[in-house]
């Protein structure tokens, strides 16, 4: 029962860290979105895409160096490629919601745009959490597994040469 409890505790900690970085990323995303909308004449979805890209960069740094700092660090090129791929899918989900609200329903006031941008972020976040933890920031082998393997190796080295398997 303790293993399940500790596994659940790890998941809760991971969700909390993911949420903290993601929450800050939402603020960056919405802040950049509103800034771009107010200082330029870009259409709403283009402004949103720019803001999403800024948030993706912010989130990668937060996830790699805080949320998932204990995860496997080998293969950074592959990690970054997968992160960008899944972030791009999240970008399409997030901005697809905003696109539908703006161009299908005509909901394009500043308040409506922010509401649907936020809804899009929420839907895309579910996908991102699953994909980042499953494919991008892979867990290192469990400590118990490593300890068991080390104990077996130590046991093998203590056996006399004649009893060791080849």
- What is the string of SSEs from the N terminus onward? HHHHH
Largest sheet: none
Radius of gyration: 22 Å
Q: Uncertain spans, ≥5 residues at pLDDT below 50? A: none
Summed over residues and divided by their number, the pLDDT gives a mean of 87
Brief summary of the model shown:
This protein has helices at 2-39, 44-67, 76-104, 110-136, 143-158. The chain is an all-alpha fold and 166 residues long.
Keywords:
mainly alpha; 166 residues
Would you mind describing this structure in some detail?
- The protein has 166 residues and is an all-alpha fold.
- 81% of the residues lie in helices and 0% in strands.
- It has helices at 2-39, 44-67, 76-104, 110-136, 143-158.
- Helix 1 packs antiparallel against helix 2.
- The chain is elongated.
- The chain starts with a helix and ends in an 8-residue tail after the last helix.
- The mean pLDDT is 87.
Topology:
Blueprint: H1 2-39, H2 44-67, H3 76-104, H4 110-136, H5 143-158
Helix pairs in contact: 1-2, 1-4, 2-3, 3-4
